[in-house]
Amino acid sequence: MPIETDAAPNPVAEKDVILRTAAKFEQKIHEYTSFTADLTAEVGENNNTLALDMGYKNTLFQDWAFKIGFNVKYTEVVPEGSKQTDTITTFNLLYTFQ
Q: Cross-referenced Pfam families, in alphabetical order (predicted)?
């Protein structure tokens, strides 16, 4: 839940130059299984973020597969009372149209 505050929002836009880098990794473990990982970093004068998105995919039969995913995002500067790290875990059932 968001933290309630009496402070008025500051509508002034901030300008910042950022450097964005990314790396992608994909490994086919077996004929029916694969592992993927995407790493993204954004470095700026006012804030830095780092995101990692990983997934494991396994084909069950023919066009059906399941995928387990894990996403972690780290943000250096966050509002007071907030955590710097967000995590998301996903379970997906996939169908491939042929």
A: DUF481
